[in-house]
Inverse folding.
């Protein structure tokens, strides 16, 4: 194949291929995250969730997509037509562009920029223009209010989330996604465990930045219909939806890379081999997990009520079996291939765990009031993040001057930050009570 | 590679100038803001062509992602219908235009007079890998004092703004 492609184009072939795969797979992935969201919500509320289309509602995303594509495309009379057309495109383009620096496994990355993290942050923060311009162009009060809330919220929480990330950058000493993961391997600890407060601040900040509950004020349905999306329908609306879920995967990807070890498997530094082979015990885990899912869906298949549902369930089982075979086969492949495939598996597993946490939080906490949202951002998270960053700086000095270990040196920092957090929360409680009592 | 770089430079430069002109001439202030964003983004693109990755990202994060969001935020609170009816340029616009022409003439003359010395240095053959570190080194060692003074100035401005807002509210 090498002689078919001229050498001047060769370095671009693989990145373009990756880009095409990401753009093609992402809408499907977003659709299934919606299904996951509905199923998790149903489970937490002791319901079944979507059950009609396909077995256990597995084909629901496809049906939703067809419905959205066939819907009438409405542009309001008094809308700014050009901006109305342009705004969803901005949102979705920026969301997709941010994937170009995300490292899904050691091999699967479109471009390893040495400003990788900053690039993702910058590009995904441009998505706000899609929301603001769309809300303005709709020429509707609900849309405009939603857009304004969104802008205010994003500007407030970006600061806190950024400061949360800086604590990791100090430890890793690099902005490249690859180097950050490598630093976690070298130091033998995922940064989420060594700087738990950085992780916590980023978790809260990322929920606010993606406009998810309990910070979903820009689209609070009881106050603003659907916020900035009120006047959108059909395909344009689905573009906004795609952008929102793409952004969710992006923030989950950032959190995974920075705090949860990226594509590293749990226990990446332990190399205990299965006797008689060159295979490590822990590397067999992904194949066994997917095999378990395959067997479970095989067991479920005969209990499906309709014949077509039985067939679809069997297809799911076969698909999982195929994935399990690939993961198991990778064990016997060269190490580079093995790490590429297993890295992607662990990365996606962590991303979905993070998204599950998002959903869990969404169905657990009631929505914040706008003043509560601002107070949490400015008077709790930002001071806490500042203390945390200073503490990490002190920890690095401790490590360099007194040769403390990477975990031990951060314990005083974490304790100090915890203390400040409790002080801030205590300081804030009477204010919150007084304001609630005054009926603000 | 050289021609590709030149083509990209011309693309970004034309985009920057064209959107700057459109920004001034649009009646609708939101459209103006969008064209200002395009100008800033194309300038960021030129930074990237010069392999100043860090400047590129700072331009995007600070100007486009931060300051312009606040601009747009404030613009949306303005009553657009009123501003649409108002006179866009004041009566001295031709004086300003003449001055701009004189300035452009000066620039052209300067370029023409120094055309012999005008030689662009060759592009750096490989991307310098430590762009961010280089900026940080310069800021925190060589330019430490100016950097700190600028930071304190910004802090004073910020506290001043908060104090003024508080007084008006109280």
């Amino acid at each position: 194949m090498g002689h078919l492609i001229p050498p001047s184009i060769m370095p671009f072939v693989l990145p373009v291929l990756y880009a095409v795969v990401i753009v093609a797979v992402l809408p499907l992935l977003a659709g299934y995250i919606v299904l996951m969201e509905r199923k998790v919500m149903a489970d937490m509320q002791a319901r079944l969730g979507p059950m009609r289309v396909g077995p256990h509602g597995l084909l629901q995303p496809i049906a939703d997509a067809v419905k959205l594509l066939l819907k009438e495309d409405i542009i309001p009379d008094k809308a700014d037509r050009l901006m109305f057309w342009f705004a969803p495109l901005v949102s979705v383009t920026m969301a997709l562009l941010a994937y170009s620096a995300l490292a899904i496994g050691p091999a699967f990355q479109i471009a390893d920029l040495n400003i990788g993290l900053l690039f993702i942050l910058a590009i995904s923060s441009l998505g706000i223009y899609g929301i603001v311009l769309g809300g303005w162009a709709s020429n509707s009060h609900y849309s405009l209010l939603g857009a304004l809330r969104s802008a205010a919220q994003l500007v407030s929480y970006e600061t806190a989330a950024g400061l949360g990330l800086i604590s990791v950058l100090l430890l890793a000493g690099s902005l490249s996604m690859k180097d950050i993961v490598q630093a976690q391997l070298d130091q033998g600890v995922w940064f989420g465990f060594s700087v738990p407060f950085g992780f916590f601040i980023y978790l809260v900040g990322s929920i606010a930045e993606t406009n998810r509950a309990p910070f979903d004020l820009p689209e609070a349905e009881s106050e603003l219909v659907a916020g900035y999306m009120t006047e959108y329908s059909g395909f344009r609306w689905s573009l906004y939806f795609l952008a929102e879920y793409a952004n969710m995967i992006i923030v989950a990807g950032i959190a995974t890379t920075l705090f949860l070890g990226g594509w590293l498997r749990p226990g990446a530094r332990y190399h205990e081999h299965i006797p008689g082979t060159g295979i490590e015990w822990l590397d067999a885990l992904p194949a066994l997990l997917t095999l378990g899912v395959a067997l479970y869906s095989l067991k479920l298949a005969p209990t499906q009520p309709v014949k077509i549902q039985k067939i679809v369930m069997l297809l799911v089982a076969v698909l999982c079996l195929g994935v399990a075979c690939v993961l198991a086969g990778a064990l016997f492949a060269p190490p580079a291939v093995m790490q590429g495939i297993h890295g992607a598996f662990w990365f996606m597993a962590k991303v979905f765990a993070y998204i599950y946490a998002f959903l869990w939080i969404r169905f657990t906490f009631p929505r914040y009031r706008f003043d509560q949202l601002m107070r949490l951002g400015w008077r709790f998270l930002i001071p806490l993040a500042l203390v945390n960053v200073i503490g990490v700086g002190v920890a690095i000095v401790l490590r360099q001057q007194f040769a403390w270990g990477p975990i031990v040196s951060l314990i005083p920092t974490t304790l100090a930050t915890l203390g400040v957090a409790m002080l801030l929360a205590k300081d804030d409680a009477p204010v919150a009570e007084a304001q609630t009592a005054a009926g603000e | 590679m050289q021609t590709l770089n030149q083509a990209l430079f011309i693309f970004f430069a034309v985009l920057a100038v064209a959107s700057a002109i459109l920004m001034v001439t649009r009646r609708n202030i939101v459209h103006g803001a969008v064209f200002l964003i395009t100008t800033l983004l194309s300038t960021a693109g030129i930074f990237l062509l010069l392999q100043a990755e860090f400047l590129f990202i700072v331009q995007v994060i600070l100007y486009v992602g931060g300051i312009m969001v606040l601009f747009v935020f404030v613009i949306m609170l303005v009553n657009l219908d009123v501003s649409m009816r108002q006179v866009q340029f004041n009566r001295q616009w031709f004086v300003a235009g003449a001055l701009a022409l004189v300035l452009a003439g000066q620039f052209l003359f300067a370029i023409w007079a120094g055309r012999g010395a005008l030689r662009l240095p060759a592009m750096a053959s490989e991307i310098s890998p430590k762009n961010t570190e280089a900026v940080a080194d310069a800021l925190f060692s060589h330019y430490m004092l100016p950097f700190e003074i600028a930071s304190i100035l910004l802090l004073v401005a910020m506290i001043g703004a908060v104090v003024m807002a508080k007084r008006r509210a109280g």
About this structure: Chain B has a mean pLDDT of 83.
